[in-house]
Write a structure and sequence with these properties.
Elements: H1 7-18, E1 32-37, E2 40-46, H2 55-64, E3 77-80, H3 94-101, E4 105-108, H4 120-127, E5 131-134, H5 138-142, H6 146-154, E6 158-166, E7 170-172, H7 184-196, E8 199-203, H8 204-210, E9 229-233, E10 252-257, H9 262-270, E11 274-278, E12 280-283, E13 286-289, H10 291-300, E14 305-308, H11 312-320, E15 326-332, E16 341-342, E17 358-366, E18 369-376
Parallel strand pairs: 3-4, 4-5, 6-14, 6-15, 8-9, 8-14, 9-10, 10-11
Antiparallel strand pairs: 1-2, 1-3, 7-16, 12-13, 15-18, 17-18
Helix pairs in contact: 3-4
């Protein structure tokens, strides 16, 4: 521990640094690092982009860039929000970099849930006589990477469902008209949700109705350097070859049935789409893609956080299958009438005991609208 401040103080600094990579580290976790010696912070770093230096390496690079500081890491304490990696990926192991720099102590907020690390980084540091302390501000560190942690621990990404509705719970008029239910402030907030996401998941019905772009357009996120991938569930491969999203930056992924038109699929691939062929299942009078296999595709593509923006059928199916982790509902102060379309299509709920229970986490005003955040239980 330093002479002047607690381990919690310096870890809080590292967590603040990690947040600087909030929109840019996909598919890697957000990580921050602070180096302290003799009660003084001597370097800091955070992971900025996948394939580039990790937080520890970026902090050490501040020292090696200055000949007068190069040896200051010897005997220092490193505060890291996530266990230093111990394997070769796109970059060398960070645990080896800390060992080579001569640090004497490493304080870790949480053990890395990635099976390739999972305690091996801590073990390697200890093998070289470095003191390791874990669990400092762990809950705050976990909040940095909920999607990454879920993907590693549960083998699927975190799914957040965004919906917009009127005060009477309607999402579109009977004829399908839905632009715009909410205000410009709420739509700008959705840009933030998209920017935080690895991918945006939707159904072909939404694409056909709106020729949706499903991308980040706000200039607030111009520094992202990447667009979230767009995943479209399209059982019968109805995606138009002229769809707007096919011409935009970023990858469009189409999940379709195994008996889809392969010639049409090839044309879509020629326009840059990535096609995944999945099994189907019968639900009432509808044929739909296996949601289990959809989850497998999302996981294989290393998505951490997926934003579901779709109509009542797909959102209802995802909710009933237990694949929605968080609901983000924007409620506008107007009424659309009993003929307008509802929020979710949830067949089979006939008694109060069959209700789907939610845990409301937050309600706040966004411009003229309200944003309700709830966890599925």
């Amino acid at each position: 521990m330093s002479d002047n401040y607690s381990d919690e103080y310096y870890m809080a600094k590292a967590i603040a640094l990690a947040k600087k990579g909030w929109y840019t580290t996909h598919p890697n976790p957000r990580v921050g690092c602070v180096l302290v010696r003799d009660g003084q912070m001597i370097a800091q770093g955070w992971h900025q982009y996948a394939g580039q230096g990790h937080a520890e390496v970026n902090a050490l690079a501040q020292l090696t860039a200055d000949a007068n500081l190069e040896k200051q890491a010897q005997g220092a304490t490193a505060y890291v929000t996530l266990e230093p990696c111990s394997h070769f990926g796109k970059t060398p192991p960070c645990s080896d970099a800390l060992i080579a720099a001569g640090v004497k102590r490493v304080v870790v907020a949480m053990v890395d849930p990635n099976p390739l690390v999972a305690g091996n980084g801590v073990k390697r540091l200890q093998e070289y006589g470095i003191e390791v302390k874990s669990g400092v501000l762990e809950s705050e560190a976990r909040a940095l990477n909920p999607g990454f942690i879920q993907r590693m621990e549960s083998q699927r990404p975190r799914i957040r469902c965004k919906m917009a509705m009127s005060l009477d719970g309607r999402t579109a008029m009977a004829n399908g008209e839905s632009q715009w239910i909410t205000s410009a402030d709420a739509r700008e907030d959705v840009q933030r949700l998209r920017a935080e996401s690895s991918a945006i998941l939707t159904g072909i019905g939404t694409v056909l109705a709106d020729d949706s772009s499903m991308n980040v357009r706000s200039q607030r996120f111009a520094q992202m350097l990447r667009q979230p991938e767009r995943v479209v569930l399209d059982t019968r491969l109805r995606m138009p070859l002229e769809a707007k999203m096919l011409a935009l930056d970023g990858q469009t992924v189409i999940c379709t049935s195994q008996d889809s038109n392969r010639a049409k699929a090839q044309e879509l691939e020629n326009r840059g789409a990535s096609i995944h062929y999945l099994q189907t299942s019968q639900l009432a009078d509808k044929v739909m893609l296996s949601l289990d296999q959809v989850m497998s595709v999302l996981t294989q593509r290393q998505y951490n956080d997926v934003l579901l923006e779709a109509g009542a059928d797909l959102t209802g199916s995802m909710l009933q299958a237990g694949y929605i982790d968080e609901l983000i509902i924007y409620m506008a102060p107007h009424l659309m009438g009993s003929e307008a379309r509802g929020l979710f299509n949830l067949p089979g709920l006939n008694t109060m005991s069959e209700r789907i229970h939610l845990s409301v986490q937050d309600i706040r005003a966004v411009g003229k609208d309200f944003r309700i955040t709830a966890l599925a239980q």
